[in-house]
UniProtKB/TrEMBL annotation:
This is TetR/AcrR family transcriptional regulator. Pfam families: TetR_N (PF00440). Keywords: DNA-binding, Transcription, Transcription regulation. Residues 33-52 bind DNA. The lineage of its organism: Bacteria, Bacillati, Actinomycetota, Actinomycetes, Kitasatosporales. It comes from Streptomyces kunmingensis. Residues 10-70 form the HTH tetR-type domain.
Length: 235
């Protein structure tokens, strides 16, 4: 799904962001300049500087808008009874968004500057992924820690999407995404709940996921048990 541009009838900020997104879509980041954006949005350069600071601030705001659109797509999907199938669907949605919005996706995922704080929508998007992973852990089907699983899915999914964006659209090997997706899922999940496949790591991960639902332990006891379970799960 492509990012929906803000209507030109909005205020200066909305018009500037809509113009930035349009220029990104048509010509990539190189096409975005304060002069080009100002001309497309019908505003003067001082207005852009006042609202966004500089070109980088403008690009950061466009990335935040892109994350918001991406998050809207992600949260529209209703979960099913199969959390692993839901993770597959989320991966495919991520890829579809990137291929439909390549310039914006590369701005969002391809050039994060070290030390910068991700926009709130990016944090919320990762939380959606973490929720998928947590549901798999609750089902007893996660073979690594939730944190490691989420980081692996995020890294592999975004890396695969960036790779496919770089390929010629007419010869794009989308099977690469399927292979990467299934390899990651095989690395982090089991075919059956941990209770049916004995092993300390799977059992520790499943119990760690279920801890928030118990009231038998004090906060101190829960914290200590989480530490022990995390230690087992990292083996």
């Amino acid at each position: 799904m492509s990012v929906h541009e803000v209507t030109a009838e909005g205020g200066p900020r909305e018009r500037i962001l809509a113009a930035t997104t349009r220029l990104l879509t048509e010509g990539g980041e190189e096409a975005v300049s304060t002069r080009a954006v100002g001309a497309a949005a019908g505003v003067q350069a001082p207005t852009i500087y006042r609202l966004f600071g500089d070109k980088q601030g403008l690009l950061d705001a466009a990335a935040a808008e892109g994350f918001a659109a991406y998050l809207s797509d992600k949260t529209e999907v209703e979960p099913t009874d199969d959390p692993v199938a839901d993770l597959r669907a989320g991966w495919d949605l991520h890829l579809d968004f990137g291929l439909a919005n390549p310039a914006l996706y590369l701005l969002m995922f391809g050039r994060r500057r070290p030390g910068t704080v991700p926009p709130p929508a990016a944090v919320a998007g990762f939380e959606v992924l973490a929720t998928h992973i947590h549901r798999i852990a609750e089902a007893g089907r996660l073979r690594v820690t939730e944190e490691r699983a989420a980081q692996l899915v995020h890294a592999a999914g975004s890396g695969t999407t960036v790779t496919l964006i770089g390929q010629d659209a007419g010869r794009r090997d989308t099977e690469l995404s399927v292979l990467a997706r299934e390899a990651v899922i095989a690395a982090i999940t089991t075919d059956a709940p941990a209770a049916e496949a004995p092993g300390p790591v799977g059992a520790a991960v499943a119990l760690r996921a279920a801890l928030p639902g118990t009231t038998a332990l004090t906060e101190t006891e829960q914290a200590l048990l989480r530490e022990w379970l995390d230690r087992i799960a990292r083996q």
